[in-house]
Amino acid sequence: MLWITCPNCGRRPIDEFAFGGEFPNVPERLTDPDQRDVDYVWMFDNVAGITQERWFHQAGCRRWQTVHRDTVTDTVVVVETDTVL
Amino acid sequence: MNEFVETLLDLTWHEPKSSYDVVIIGGGGHGLATAYYLATRHGITNVAVIEANYIGSGNSGRNTTIIRANYGIPESIRFYQHSLEMYETLEDETGCWIMHNTKGLMWLAHTETAMRAERARCLLNTACGSETVMVSPTEIKALCPEVDLSGGGRYPVLGASHHLGAATARHDRVVWAYAQGAMRKGVHVVQNTRVTGLMRDGDRVTGVQTAGGNISAGVVLSAVGGHVTTIASYADVRLPVRTHPLQAFVTNGYAQTFDQIISDTELNCYVSQTARGQMLIGAEFDPQPSYSRQSSFGFLQSCTTKISAVLPFLKNLRILRQWTGTCDISADFSPIMGETGADGLLVTTGWGTWGFKAIPAGGSLMAELIATGRTPELLQPFSLNRFARDHALADQGSTGTR
Q1: Which H or E element spans position B201?
Q2: Is the Cβ–Cβ distance between B208 and B25 less than 8 Å?
Q3: Given CB 3.0 to 4.6 Å as the disulfide criterion, which of A42, B24, B138, B188 pairs with B14?
Q4: Which residues of chain B have a CB within 8 Å of the CB of A48?
Q5: Is the Cβ–Cβ distance between B149 and B156 less than 8 Å?
Q6: According to the model, what pLDDT value does residue A84 have?
Q7: For residue B81, what are the CA distances in angstroms to B64, B188, B261, B288?
Q8: Which residue of A14, A46, A53 is in closest CB contact with B243?
Q9: Cα–Cα distance for residue pair B177/B168, rounded to 1 Å
Q10: Distance CA B239, CA B258 (A)
Q11: B290 has a chain A CB within 8 A of its CB
Q12: What pTM, to 2 d.p., does this model score?
């Protein structure tokens, strides 16, 4: 099972968290504003490697966290908690 | 067709040549079916299918083998109904026994909202040529005596939509049938060869790069499941796809015949019986994208709790095996087939949790597109540029997932 070490609650199973999606990342090479909008709305990086994404600790501190996760090995690398509560 | 007339598979392997008319990346159901129809219907046999592992080792070997067409939008119903009908004649066409078995599928409804949704589904499906009728709790009990109509006291069953044409088939056999048919016509299938890049001439894709060398091609089709984003990125193509794990498990044999496929609109899980008698159970995909194929105990816990509420006999069975596939979920939960915007590169992707049922239709229509250069009518709604044109085909409610 995947575990997330919550900065507020400690090491908790992933079932306690709600996935909030990865950060959208429109490539620099897209210059046409319409194309950039389409990319922002629809496209995903879908990285095979380390992603940066949002998780909500639903069954714990109920705070949003930014999680750096390796999608190939399914391990959490870094967890940052939001400083503004 | 049955086991008594079956002969051994006739597979001929080749070393890859340096050039082909068509190179298909991915030796799963969709890739091999496309090669098969290119060779048999369009006379294009200078084709290679490049597979990173062995054929059918990816999601074609990990799915739950349900064939159905009860979708929520006309474009999807027509496409999947076409596929369902092609499956019915696939044994005669290929001469291979794929263990096709028409069973019927019931989607149980537990709330008035779900009943309304299922009634609408019945009307729309029947209108689009895929017969689906509402059944009452009494009729459900007659079709499948194992169902607990009280839903364990928690999920009372109010009714169900009954999709009569739904079937199951043996996934490996479908892959082998297409591989054999394609190979007999001269298609080269190359196993254990991973595509590491695309050859490009300006913006045009002119072939694939592999560890064993470059292979040039008139057309490259990506039929991979799970790593399509990587393949597309070699040609600077962005896709509205996220790769999620999807888990499933089987129990030991259930001694009686269970001849319906049962799915649940509220609990998002489904069950069918394999030819060996095992109960095959699946549910929604994991919420976070991942390529890891790790199975989890949490999935077994939640899925067994849910499914045994409506089918309590499952509590007496034991879990034999659990596995995970990686599925490409598109932004609108419908597949993406056709041109990518990069010249010479086509995709068939976004097959999420609904790829197996679409193998014959997806393969034959992609073959027609490659052979004629024209997008067949059934494929037109599923083009990649539908997102930019604001014509997304949102139909998550029909995918059995949420």
Answers
A1: strand B195-201
A2: yes
A3: B188
A4: 227, 229-230, 243, 291
A5: yes
A6: 54
A7: 18, 30, 17, 31
A8: A46
A9: 16
A10: 40
A11: yes
A12: 0.94
